[in-house]
Amino acid sequence: NAGVTQTPKFQVLKTGQSMTLQCAQDMNHEYMSWYRQDPGMGLRLIHYSVGAGITDQGEVPNGYNVSRSTTEDFPLRLLSAAPSQTSVYFCASSEGRTISPSYNEQFFGPGTRLTVL
Amino acid sequence: GDSVTQMEGPVTLSEEAFLTINCTYTATGYPSLFWYVQYPGEGLQLLLKATKADDKGSNKGFEATYRKETTSFHLEKGSVQVSDSAVYFCALSDRGGDTGRRALTFGSGTRLQVQP
Question: Which residues in chain A touch residue B1, judged by CB atoms under 8 angstroms apart?
């Protein structure tokens, strides 16, 4: 299993440009989420999904859109990039069955480092 | 809301020294607690976890005990190695509730540098 994969690894955008960060997992996990990591602030939740066709906002959703058309993929879209979105973005996934003892154990991708000029 | 506070770094130790990284939390209910490690240029890896009070998580020589009475989950290792140099994050997970939201709330991270 490849686990959680993210592309690209690095990206530089100009203010106002749009782009999509890709995330895929091959573990058949129902739950997927996006976090951003900023210095001194840990990771903060942007959006999450409890299954295909279902998404919801996290702690810092403004400026980001998501969709979940398949179990495997959970792309994050920046419609009009701003310098405040310069960050490292991590995708994570976990099992959906709440009866599983590891249901809240999240597996992280390697991250995408985004710079907005 | 939920929050996690961990000691600020960087922490610099010599090889074979004893390590403690403090972590305290505020949460409603009974969260699960985690320590994640991030090596340079990589994503986060689960180091250990505990799902209920008095549980001890352990992995790779690291240990942490879920202390409900002090709302703490301190990370310890008896003898650190240069290869342990990384950033360590304490985190808690809520139970999901009606929405199924299963977010991790992270501390700000503690950078550990181990010198030979």
Answer: none
Condensed to tens digits (0 to 9), the pLDDT of residues A39-49 reads: 877 899 999 99
- Select the residue of A31, A50, A108 nearest B43 (Cβ to Cβ): A108
Q: How many Å apart are CA B12 and CA B76, to the nearest integer? A: 14
Cross-chain Cβ contact A107/B46 below 8 Å: yes
Cα dihedral A91→A24→A9→A41 (10° resolution): 0
Interchain CB contact of B51 with A (< 8 Å): yes
Tokens of A114: 């985004």
Residues 6+ apart with CB under 8 A from B92: B2, B4, B25, B27, B31, B32, B33, B34, B104, B105
Residues of B with Cβ-Cβ distance to A4 under 8 angstroms:
43
Contacts of A56 in chain B (CB under 8 A): 99, 101
Nearest beta carbon to residue B96 from set A4, A45, A98: A98
**Taking the CA atoms of chain B, what radius of gyration do you get in angstroms?**
14
C-alpha to C-alpha distance for A44 and A60, rounded to whole angstroms: 7
Q: Tens digits of per-residue pLDDT, B43-87?
A: 899 999 998 899 999 999 999 999 999 999 999 999 999 999 999
What's the pLDDT score for residue B115? Answer: 96
pLDDT bin (cut points 50, 70, 90) of residue B41 is confident
Are residues A73 and A22 in contact, defined by beta-carbon separation less than 8 angstroms?
yes
Q: What is the pLDDT of residues A53-74, one digit of tens each?
A: 999 999 899 999 999 999 999 9
